[in-house]
Amino acid sequence: MRITTRQAIAFRLARHHLDSRAPARNLVTVASDVCGIQAQLMSAAYIALWARIEHLSSEAIEDSIARKRTLVKTWAMRGTVHLLATTDLMVYLGGLLRGGLRSHDQWLARKGIGRRSIEDLITAIGRLLGHGPLTRKELAEKVHTELGRQAAVFVAHPWGDVVKRACTRGVACFGPPRGGE
User: Fold this and answer.
1) Count of Cβ atoms closer than 10 Å to residue 140 Cβ
2) Between 20 and 30 A from 117 (CA), which of 7, 30, 47, 94?
3) What is the pTM of this model?
4) Alpha-carbon distances, residue 86 vs 12, 20, 70, 180 (angstroms)
């Protein structure tokens, strides 16, 4: 059986919930079906979800992330921030850990942080976040106290550096927003 171009397009539109919008109760299913929603800018994530889901509010999305925890906001594919269904998280992170982060590790090495230091920082981040959510600034202050100024610089870096690496290990993720953080 031959699949026509028209059938392929129809399948993709349907799979991405772009042929008809899904009900709001299917928020997590839609995020899963489309293999995550890019959320580098949350406003773009809201628009991408709104295009696929009827009667969706930004509060429902935030509630799914912060309270229900059915969506997780984390660094994932291409090293960019995505909203993923929590049930899918380890599938995506597992794919990243099978070699997709070599260039990130090489970049950290060029900045002077070796494999052992990365592991120490990830362990500290996991331990510190075990007590509850922290802003990046608060996390950097606690890391500074525990591991020193240079370690804190890598945590506070605006590109994520070691925090991104902790996220790709499943040790950390974005928490509920506080002010601009």
Assistant:
1) 20
2) 94
3) 0.85
4) 23, 24, 5, 24
Element at 153 (helix H, strand E) = helix 149-156
Return the structure tokens found at 153: 């610089």
pLDDT tens for 109-144 read 777 777 788 888 889 999 999 988 998 889 888 888
Q: DSSP state, 2?
A: P
Residues 6+ apart with CB under 8 A from 158: none
- SS3 assignment, position 166: helix
Per-residue 3-state assignment (H helix, E strand, C coil) for the chain:
CCCCHHHHHHHHHHHCCCCCCECHHHHHHHHHHCCCEECCCHHHHHHHHHCCECCCCHHHHHHHHHCCCCEEEEECHHHCEEEEEHHHHHHHHHHHHHHHCHHHHHHHHHCCCCHHHHHHHHHHHHHHHCCCCCCHHHHHHHHHHHHCHHHHHHHHCCCCHHHHHHHHCCCCCCCCCCCCC
d(Cα 60, Cα 24) in Å, to the nearest integer? 9
| CB-count burial class (<10 Å; 0-12, 13-18, 19+) for 131 | exposed
